[in-house]
Amino acid sequence: MKRIFYRSFIMVFISAISLYSFFEDIGIGARQTSMGSTFVAVCDDVYSVYYNPAGLGKPLVGSVSFMYAQLWPSIGGEGLNDMFAGFNTVLRNNIGIGITWQSRVLQGVVNDDTISVGLGKQIKENLLLGVVVKYLKFELVSEEIKSIPELKNNSQKTAVGLDLGVLLKLTQIDVGISLKNVNSPDVGIFEPAPLPMVIKFGVSKKFEKIRVAADVSNSNNVTEFSAGGELYLSEKITLRCGGITSTADYLKLSVGAGLQINKLQLDYSYMIQIIGGTETDTGTHRVGLSLRFK
């Protein structure tokens, strides 16, 4: 009887985490999360593949980027990690391309990998469009879990997702629109579990020594609001901060900094949920490294 209950619990648990934990949009990138993940209208590097692929249509300098985060270490120990690697360049006809890999790992239990290819193009003087095709893979790696008969030949699920992006460069501000999971890719193992579409709208304005941005997004009838910015202390040093709140009654605050040394950019962010989290949550640290080709 206990074995039957255990199997049922594991299958329900996996069905839930495949959708709500491992593919949840919690932001990516050290620079981006330190600004409250307000990047839909900023989108000026390879992380545009994640936030708004239209940004790839800008005349970006080619680069390669990496990020690592140990998510909620005070809650999940050392087992839950986020990793990212990306590359971007410009092809013929001024088409920007970005190729990224993102992995969210619960060590020894679950691996989630997302490989994305994004394209961006400036259509008119003030209009840029972008598209991302992404390959999603959810895999159970625990031998104990895979020993359950129902999981023996059913331990992974793959799907293909589609994201779209628009960027308008107006006189005073930039306006971005992003649609993630347009086709609602199904990542459920035991039963259908389509990822909900995420609609994001953002604005950004850059001054001489400061950039400010704000985003609003909606998914599963939950609306999220975020605001952030970065202060350029010099050509090498940047300070950042941001905040995120939502109709789900939570509040997250973030801070960070960036250091540029020649073609190398080092970024750090710290984000903590101060409302709607747990008492033991001490926040998440992210570090990022980018190398520009020129």
Q: What's the overall average pLDDT, rounded?
A: 88
Radius of gyration: 19 Å
**N-to-C span:** 64 Å
Oligomeric state of the chains?
single chain
In DSSP terms, counting alpha (H) and pi (I) runs of 4 or more, how many helices? Answer: 5
> Helix content range of the residues, please?
10-25%
The general outline is globular
> How many domains, in number, for the residues?
1
β-strand number: 14
Low-confidence stretches: 1-13, 16-20
Main beta sheet: 14 strands, antiparallel, barrel
Describe the structure.
The chain is mainly beta. The chain has five helices and 14 strands. A 14-stranded antiparallel beta barrel has the order 1-2-3-4-5-6-7-8-9-10-11-12-13-14. It starts with a helix and ends with a strand. The N terminus is likely disordered.
List its salient traits:
294 residues, 52% strand, Porin
Strands, helices and their partners?
Layout lengths: L1 H19 L9 H5 L13 H4 L11 E8 L2 H4 L3 E11 L5 E11 L3 E15 L2 E14 L2 H4 L9 E14 L4 E7 L17 E9 L3 E10 L2 E11 L4 E10 L4 E11 L2 E12 L8 E9 L2
Antiparallel strand pairs: 1-2, 1-14, 2-3, 3-4, 4-5, 5-6, 6-7, 7-8, 8-9, 9-10, 10-11, 11-12, 12-13, 13-14
Brief sketch in words of this structure:
With 294 residues, this protein is mainly beta.
